[in-house]
């Protein structure tokens, strides 16, 4: 069993107490309502029960009155002991039969019955002395009387209705009718209710419960008992109280019959039409109705409260679940936030580290740039060294030849031969031209510093180079195919330097296609990522593998008047612009060179 904390036990105990209290209250309310319903039914039945009784009595009440004025009755009383009594007996029998009275009889002033409806029968009243009867004395005194009592002869209960028979001024006797109320009582019994009549002292008279007859609602005082004895003329009646207990103010009566108490709803009414002082009581059984109403109400309340409890339980559970969910969510949020802040801190750290690395890398790159510049400078110096050596070699020859031509010219002059001198001088001029060509090329190469790079659309450089060579192109009959479209990527370069490379490439192509039947040069611009590729392709003889291998070496030339410096210088300029110049491999049927530069737009 789950252990409950003290607080919970208290809640459970209080809940059970509330439940029990609510069930008890619901039972009580339902019982009250059921009792009210029963009372309504009883009140509705009460006039019927009363009507049955008063109807029976009223039906007979006139009979003694009428007999009191009947001449035959008077005659018989006047002349007592004559034959008229026999005729009267017959008449009384006939009336009693018609009125369904149990007996009608006539008593003389001495109290002796002189005629009766039951004359001649074993239980005949004729000759019986009724002087002691209360009804006789009261009727004689007052003119009319009624008395409930037991028959002297029959011993059966009934209501005696008596009327005095008067002759002129003096009384002759009394006419009496006895109504036995068996039918009324049987009618009450069959109604299912418990019905009885009490006199003014509370003694039960007519009743659907014969054993209650002559018992009292409450113990009679000695005085009341004496009066009751006198009026009812019951010698041995004890007037014991009924086995009936009244509830305190709830209108319920309890009957203790055979040890088992049964509850009844009790209603009562006066019977003014019947006999003065009579009251009619009607009791209706209430046990079944009350207990079923109480049980239904208790069950309904229990179910209702259980349902409410269940609902409260479910709601509490749901609220708790929601609270737990929210707490979990809050925890997750907090965790997430802490993770985010941790991660942010990590990222900040790694950002800082990255920034450091970037700075380091920039430093390193700057260092590399410096190194590359140094290297380029060294390279340039080395090329310069090679060129200087080449130049020395190239110039030495013409200088030595010039010297030889000059010495020979001197000797010719000494010997007076003028003609060969002119030939020698022409050769000397051509030698100096050769030297001039070498130095002018070197001047171009040396012109590098001082030309600032700026954003340059490559088309402009291409157009510039083509216009510089326009005369030669026209003469050579070469078809120039310019780049398609109008796109002109921009590179960072000095226009003159880029034109120098292009002019050199175009000149080489023109040179290579001198004897070509259908010479053609295609210039293309391509963009790949952040690079701009300018290629110059011809359909000349191209280059063999060996020539291609030594292409960018100074003084490698196949031309008669070539210096073998153009490509070396062009490649140097391309590198200076942050790019490269290369021979495209495998270009079939001609040579193709590509200048590769960085695009800036
Ligand atoms: P030069 O033009 O003075 O010879 P370059 O360095 O410009 O010096 O060229 C070197 C050599 O490369 C040329 O002599 C030539 O043999 C070869 N060459 C260059 N361009 C081409 C070309 N388009 N077709 C064939 N050979 C070429």
From TrEMBL:
Residue span, Histidine kinase domain: 390-601
Ranges in coiled-coil conformation: 354-381
Regions that span the bilayer: 299-316
A single GO molecular function term of this UniProt record: ATP binding
Main subcellular location of this protein, as a coarse class: membrane
Intracellular or extracellular location(s): Cell inner membrane
Membrane-protein topology: Multi-pass membrane protein
UniProt keyword annotations, A-Z: ATP-binding, Cell inner membrane, Cell membrane, Coiled coil, Kinase, Membrane, Nucleotide-binding, Phosphoprotein, Transferase, Transmembrane, Transmembrane helix, Two-component regulatory system
Catalytic activity: ATP + protein L-histidine = ADP + protein N-phospho-L-histidine
Source domain of life: Bacteria
EC number annotated for this UniProt entry: 2.7.13.3
GO CC terms in record: plasma membrane
SMART domains: HATPase_c, HisKA
UniProt xrefs under Gene3D superfamilies: 1.10.287.130, 6.10.250.3020, Histidine kinase-like ATPase, C-terminal domain, PAS domain
InterPro entries on file: HATPase_C_sf, HATPase_dom, His_kinase_dom, HisK_dim/P_dom, HisK_dim/P_sf, Sensor-like_sf, Sig_transdc_His_kin-like_C, Sig_transdc_His_kinase_DctB
Reported function: Member of the two-component regulatory system DctB/DctD involved in the transport of C4-dicarboxylates. DctB functions as a membrane-associated protein kinase that phosphorylates DctD in response to environmental signals.
Protein name as annotated: C4-dicarboxylate transport sensor protein DctB
Organism: Mesorhizobium kowhaii
């Amino acid at each position: 069993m789950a252990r409950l904390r003290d607080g919970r036990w208290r809640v459970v105990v209080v809940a059970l107490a509330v439940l029990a209290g609510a069930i008890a209250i619901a039972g009580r309310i339902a019982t009250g309502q059921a009792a009210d319903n029963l009372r309504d039914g009883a009140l509705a039945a009460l006039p019927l029960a009363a009507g049955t009784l008063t109807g029976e009595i009223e039906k007979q009440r006139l009979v003694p009155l009428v007999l009191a004025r009947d001449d035959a009755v008077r005659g018989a009383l006047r002349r007592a002991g004559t034959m008229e009594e026999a005729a009267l007996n017959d008449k009384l029998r006939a009336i009693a039969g018609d009125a369904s009275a149990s007996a009608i009889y006539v008593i003389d002033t001495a109290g002796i019955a002189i005629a009766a409806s039951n004359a001649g029968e074993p239980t005949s009243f004729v000759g019986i002395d009724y002087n002691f009867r209360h009804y006789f004395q009261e009727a004689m005194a007052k003119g009319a009387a009624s008395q409930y009592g037991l028959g002297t002869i029959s011993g059966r209960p009934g209501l005696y209705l008596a009327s005095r028979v008067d002759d002129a001024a003096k009384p002759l006797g009394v006419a009496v009718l006895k109504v036995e109320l068996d039918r009324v009582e049987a009618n009450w019994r069959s109604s299912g209710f418990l019905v009885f009549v009490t006199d003014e002292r509370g003694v039960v008279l007519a009743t659907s419960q014969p054993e209650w007859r002559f018992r009292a609602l409450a113990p009679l005082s000695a005085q009341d008992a004496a009066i009751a004895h006198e009026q009812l003329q019951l010698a041995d009646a004890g007037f014991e109280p009924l086995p009936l207990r009244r509830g305190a103010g709830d209108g319920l009566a309890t009957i203790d019959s055979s040890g088992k108490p049964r509850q009844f709803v009790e209603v009562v009414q006066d019977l003014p039409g019947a006999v003065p002082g009579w009251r009619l009581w009607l009791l209706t059984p209430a046990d079944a109705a009350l207990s079923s109403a109480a049980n239904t109400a208790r069950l309904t309340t229990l179910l209702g409260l259980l349902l409410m409890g269940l609902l409260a339980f479910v709601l509490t559970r749901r609220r708790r679940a929601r609270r737990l969910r929210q707490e979990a969510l809050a925890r997750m949020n907090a965790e997430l936030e802490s993770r985010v802040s941790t991660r942010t801190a990590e990222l900040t750290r790694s950002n800082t580290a990255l920034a450091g690395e970037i700075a380091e890398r920039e430093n390193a790159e700057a260092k590399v740039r410096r190194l590359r510049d140094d290297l380029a400078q060294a390279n340039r110096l080395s090329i310069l060294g090679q060129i200087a050596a080449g130049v020395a070699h190239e110039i030495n020859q013409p200088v030595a030849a010039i010297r030889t031509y000059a010495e020979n010219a001197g000797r010719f002059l000494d010997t007076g031969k003028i003609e060969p001198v002119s030939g020698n001088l022409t050769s000397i001029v051509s030698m100096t031209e050769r030297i001039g060509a070498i130095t002018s090329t070197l001047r171009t190469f040396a012109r590098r510093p001082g030309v600032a790079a700026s954003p340059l659309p490559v088309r402009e450089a291409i157009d510039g180079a083509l216009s510089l060579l326009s005369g030669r192109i026209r003469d050579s009959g070469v078809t120039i195919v310019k780049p398609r479209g109008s796109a002109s990527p921009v590179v960072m370069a000095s226009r003159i330097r880029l034109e120098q490379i292009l002019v050199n490439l175009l000149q080489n192509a023109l040179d290579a296609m001198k004897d070509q039947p259908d010479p053609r040069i295609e210039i293309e611009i391509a963009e790949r990522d952040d690079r701009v590729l300018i290629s110059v392709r011809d359909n000349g003889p191209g280059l063999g593998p060996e020539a291609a291998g030594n292409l960018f070496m100074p003084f490698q030339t196949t031309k008669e008047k070539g210096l073998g410096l153009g490509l070396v210088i062009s490649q140097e300029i391309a590198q200076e612009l942050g790019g490269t110049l290369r021979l495209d491999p495998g270009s079939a049927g001609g040579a193709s060179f590509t200048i590769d530069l960085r695009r800036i737009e």
